[in-house]
Amino acid sequence: MSQLTLVTRAGSHDLPVELNQTVVAIAKKHKVVWGHACQRGVCAQCRTFVLEGAEFLNEVTKEEKLRLRKAERAEGFRLGCQIQVVQDGDVKLAHRPY
């Protein structure tokens, strides 16, 4: 079974992969603190660095293109409220707010 690893200041949390759910929604469900406010891609409090498994994630959304600089996206930054695991595979993400 695939695993979703969320890395926060409080430590690392290994969770089951839930397809087509945002990282923020999964974190909330499992009571993992993953800073967020708007959940629409505007505030960027859920800024996330993809450590592993980018190939299992959805494409970058228009909200991410508007909020994150091209250089940030190229480095592997996404928004937790926009990221969804769309294919079975191990994914590791780190919460990296500004």
UniProtKB/TrEMBL annotation:
Database matches in Pfam families? Fer2
Q: Where is the 2Fe-2S ferredoxin-type domain?
A: 2-98
**GO terms assigned for molecular function:** 2 iron, 2 sulfur cluster binding
Please state what the protein is called: (2Fe-2S)-binding protein
Q: Which source organism does the UniProt entry give?
A: Brevibacillus nitrificans
Q: What does the record give as the organism's lineage?
A: Bacteria, Bacillati, Bacillota, Bacilli, Bacillales
